[in-house]
């Protein structure tokens, strides 16, 4: 199914590992350059700005091809505008195939053609159904994005696949079940939890290591979906919007007490399991979820003025950070504040030094100019006396 050269995929992974070892100081620059020279890798870019630049260039190329075909190839066909999205999607697929076979992966050019294929697929089904069948559009995008990810290992396609599948299931539950609106939050809770554990099982039994990043991405998104599905603010506002009875204030929802407990309990559980399992992605998600939980509470209950709440929140975060650093800074293993050599976390230390230097007006040390008087060269104990002037 993968159209990319698997040897080059393996070599790209080995090169990334070698670069991580070089940044951590385990191997030298000469060794890394030798490894990079000997291994044939895919044509890709890690610099996001360069990748965006090539994406814009690829989008211009894709749009030019589609424009040329629409002007000269299909102008004589009746109602040809209905056929155009299918042709544009085919152009995107052919371009993606050619670029992949030439070794382009996460380059920018391939992103333009793959995302263009997804966009035109949804547009084609929308034109065919005259925009009335939303479910068919989402099913088509789900299937095509899944195929594109399996074939090109495109992470954005994996993200589009999971989001489109989520919308498809949610729309089907809401439209075709009598009590769809009432059970939708609970269905999404089960769906998010099921996706998370299914991805964990896939990662344990994974035979194709090339799909690892996509599965980790979907697993992380499922954690966010699980939390948002039970967040009081999301459930209440979405329920009011879907029911059509949203006025100035959304109506109260049933089981509000359950959703309030869920809103604050799940981020704490995320934080606990992240620290226990040393899961960095879950740790960041827990921090964001905790912040959003307090925002959800304040959205309906303004206990304190904004400036007072922000001040108290900042003091609380400072106290937590201070005592956590004080407790962890001497630990050498497990959860520690020591710089991570592999992920190059000492950038924080460099940032700290820069902040201190800018705060106290410290300037970098300047080497003094060489003195015009030369010393040395003495053959005796004197400084520079050789018996001659």
TrEMBL record:
<feature type="transmembrane region" description="Helical">
    <location>
        <begin position="281"/>
        <end position="300"/>
    </location>
</feature>
<feature type="transmembrane region" description="Helical">
    <location>
        <begin position="134"/>
        <end position="150"/>
    </location>
</feature>
<feature type="transmembrane region" description="Helical">
    <location>
        <begin position="155"/>
        <end position="173"/>
    </location>
</feature>
<keyword id="KW-0812">Transmembrane</keyword>
<feature type="transmembrane region" description="Helical">
    <location>
        <begin position="179"/>
        <end position="198"/>
    </location>
</feature>
<feature type="transmembrane region" description="Helical">
    <location>
        <begin position="48"/>
        <end position="74"/>
    </location>
</feature>
<keyword id="KW-0472">Membrane</keyword>
<protein>
    <recommendedName>
        <fullName>DUF2157 domain-containing protein</fullName>
    </recommendedName>
</protein>
<feature type="transmembrane region" description="Helical">
    <location>
        <begin position="253"/>
        <end position="274"/>
    </location>
</feature>
<feature type="transmembrane region" description="Helical">
    <location>
        <begin position="112"/>
        <end position="128"/>
    </location>
</feature>
<feature type="transmembrane region" description="Helical">
    <location>
        <begin position="306"/>
        <end position="325"/>
    </location>
</feature>
<feature type="transmembrane region" description="Helical">
    <location>
        <begin position="80"/>
        <end position="100"/>
    </location>
</feature>
<keyword id="KW-1133">Transmembrane helix</keyword>
<feature type="transmembrane region" description="Helical">
    <location>
        <begin position="210"/>
        <end position="233"/>
    </location>
</feature>
């Amino acid at each position: 199914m993968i159209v990319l050269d698997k040897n080059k995929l393996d070599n790209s992974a080995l090169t990334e590992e070698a670069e991580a070892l070089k940044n951590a100081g385990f191997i030298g620059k000469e060794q890394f350059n030798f490894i990079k020279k000997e291994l044939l890798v895919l044509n890709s870019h890690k610099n996001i700005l360069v990748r965006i630049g090539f994406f814009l260039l690829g989008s211009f190329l894709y749009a030019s091809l589609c424009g040329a075909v629409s002007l000269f190839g299909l102008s004589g066909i009746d109602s040809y505008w209905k056929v155009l999205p299918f042709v544009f999607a085919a152009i995107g697929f052919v371009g993606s195939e050619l670029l992949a076979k030439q070794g382009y992966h996460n380059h920018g050019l391939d992103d333009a053609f793959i995302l263009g294929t997804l966009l035109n697929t949804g547009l084609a089904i929308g034109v065919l159904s005259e925009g009335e069948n939303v479910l068919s559009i989402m099913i088509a995008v789900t299937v095509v994005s899944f195929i594109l990810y399996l074939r090109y290992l495109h992470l954005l396609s994996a993200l589009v696949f999971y989001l489109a599948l989520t919308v498809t299931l949610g729309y089907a539950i809401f439209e075709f079940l009598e009590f769809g609106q009432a059970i939708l939050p609970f269905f999404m809770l089960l769906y998010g939890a099921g996706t998370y554990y299914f991805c964990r099982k896939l990662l344990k039994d994974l035979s194709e290591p090339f799909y690892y990043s996509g599965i980790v991405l979907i697993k992380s998104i499922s954690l966010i979906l699980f939390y948002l599905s039970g967040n009081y603010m999301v459930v209440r506002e979405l329920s009011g919007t879907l029911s059509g009875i949203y006025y100035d204030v959304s109506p109260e929802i049933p089981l509000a007490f359950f959703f309030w407990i869920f809103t604050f309990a799940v981020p704490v559980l995320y934080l606990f399991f992240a620290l226990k399992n040393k899961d960095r992605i879950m740790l960041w998600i827990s921090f964001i979820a905790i912040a959003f939980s307090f925002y959800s509470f304040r959205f309906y209950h303004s206990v304190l003025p904004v400036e007072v709440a922000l001040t108290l929140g900042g003091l609380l975060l400072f106290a937590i950070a201070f005592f956590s650093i004080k407790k962890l800074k001497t630990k050498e293993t497990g959860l520690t504040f020591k710089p991570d050599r592999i992920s190059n976390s000492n950038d924080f230390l460099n940032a700290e030094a820069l902040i201190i230097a800018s705060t106290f007006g410290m300037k970098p040390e300047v080497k003094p100019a060489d003195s015009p008087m030369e010393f040395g060269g003495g053959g005796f104990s004197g400084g520079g006396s050789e018996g001659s002037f």
